[in-house]
């Protein structure tokens, strides 16, 4: 890798997965420790003025954007402002910017898979903030790659997977929507995709724009929960015995979680040659890490 790579958010689950995968291929990252209050516009300005990498992967707000159950609007506003400043700095210093985003920019109102050409219409403040951050990057920093991910799964105890497994330890019956669909995506697979994109950017390929990625085989949250429990029982016996179907509209998060969140991944395949991997294959190692951490 000829580019000097900077990774913001090297301490979170996706950042760690990216560092692990890079190390296997002798690809290293500058991964600065964030200020105590987290990265903001001022600290990012100082950082990039001092370091000037060739490419920057912004996972600084990964947990809030992809794993947290809820995030305050004030917190999102600070993060959104910081992304705007980051885009300005990357343009000024001629740094390539890889910025993650999410299926949450769509409202989930259509049953067919969302492509990059579909118009976003976010349901809640998090989706709206992500959409505005995307627009800011597009308008300010032409040399960018925006990667929208499906249902990201990681080993963090407070994340999407961790909350589900914690419930499974304390409740005998779990309810999950059988009419809510998406692409489960283990963080190791997401890291693979990011690294593959970086390799092609390292070859000076001007493949800027917005791309979708999610694990192979779209599924319902009910089927995902059943698959996770089936695998988790190899490691823990005392888990919920039954998962029952519930309508999306009856779920407590129906107001801010898109019902249909399946992403079409043809563009990233045709442009970068990145093939979706089966999400089920990633569950054993993911659950092994989770249970080693809790």
TrEMBL record:
<dbReference type="InterPro" id="IPR029903">
    <property type="entry name" value="RmlD-like-bd"/>
</dbReference>
<feature type="domain" description="RmlD-like substrate binding">
    <location>
        <begin position="3"/>
        <end position="291"/>
    </location>
</feature>
<dbReference type="InterPro" id="IPR005913">
    <property type="entry name" value="dTDP_dehydrorham_reduct"/>
</dbReference>
<keyword id="KW-0560">Oxidoreductase</keyword>
<comment type="similarity">
    <text>Belongs to the dTDP-4-dehydrorhamnose reductase family.</text>
</comment>
<keyword id="KW-0521">NADP</keyword>
<comment type="function">
    <text>Catalyzes the reduction of dTDP-6-deoxy-L-lyxo-4-hexulose to yield dTDP-L-rhamnose.</text>
</comment>
<comment type="pathway">
    <text>Carbohydrate biosynthesis; dTDP-L-rhamnose biosynthesis.</text>
</comment>
<dbReference type="Pfam" id="PF04321">
    <property type="entry name" value="RmlD_sub_bind"/>
</dbReference>
<protein>
    <recommendedName>
        <fullName>dTDP-4-dehydrorhamnose reductase</fullName>
        <ecNumber>1.1.1.133</ecNumber>
    </recommendedName>
</protein>
<dbReference type="InterPro" id="IPR036291">
    <property type="entry name" value="NAD(P)-bd_dom_sf"/>
</dbReference>
